[in-house]
Design a protein that fits this description.
- By secondary structure, this protein is mainly α.
- The protein is built from ten helices and no strands.
- Helix 2 runs parallel beside helix 3, helix 4 packs antiparallel against helix 5 and helix 5 runs parallel beside helix 9.
- The protein is globular and about 45 Å long.
Length: 211
């Protein structure tokens, strides 16, 4: 019964994760297909560039809840920890490789932090603080996201969570690095796009794909 219930929630987590919130929200806010605007990414940073603060905030909230909700549901039903890790992973993979978008998707940062928030709220809050500090200091959304993710395994270990938690977080870090490989190349080359407080009414497509 436990395995069947976990399997159903895992499937539901993937389906929920696959909902391209940024695409829908930005289209309703601006009438634009975000995949053809700005960096082409469907995540919060590009929604901010294309459709503004309100749309970006809604995207961030929805994408975070895609990871948080299945984990909280599994914990509420009393499922063991070994079943919750695949549930969380399914939500992130759904966001990154959405069946709705034919295997394409976002980079999974907000959904990942939602998953960790369901597992270990203090670690997630501290990681968000890292993200905010790096973003304010550098204006690089990709760098802030990567450093936030990189901090998670250490934070979980320092806060005394079982070994499985930091190991699971390490898997999320590796996936985030893979999805940000283009951003990493541009950060090293000094050509990554910074996030600014103001945005043009209709941003021109970037020559290189950013965050």
């Amino acid at each position: 019964m436990t395995v069947l219930l976990a399997g159903l929630i895992t499937l539901a987590a993937y389906l929920l994760g696959s909902v391209p919130a940024g695409l829908v929200i930005s289209y309703r806010a601006s009438g634009l297909d975000i995949r053809s605007e700005g960096s082409g990414n469907i995540g919060t940073a590009n929604v901010y560039r294309v459709a503004g603060r309100r749309a970006a905030a809604l995207t961030l909230l929805f994408d975070t809840c895609k990871g948080l909700a299945p984990v909280l549901a599994a914990r509420g039903l009393g499922l063991p920890l070994w079943t919750i890790f695949p549930i969380g992973a399914a939500a992130v993979l759904g966001h990154n490789f959405s069946f709705i978008l034919h295997g394409r998707g976002g980079k999974g940062i907000a959904t990942s932090i939602g998953v960790v928030g369901g597992l270990a709220p203090p670690a997630a809050l501290l990681a968000i603080a890292v993200w905010l500090l790096v973003l304010l200091g550098s204006r690089y959304a990709s760098l802030a996201s990567l450093l936030m993710m990189a901090a998670l395994p250490a934070l979980l270990a320092l806060l005394g969570y079982p070994l499985g938690d930091p190991l699971f977080a390490l898997g999320l870090v590796l996936l985030a690095v893979y999805r940000h490989r283009g951003n990493i190349r541009r950060l090293l080359a000094g050509t990554e796009t910074k996030l600014t407080l103001s945005r043009p009414a209709r941003p021109a497509n970037l020559g290189s794909r950013g965050h």
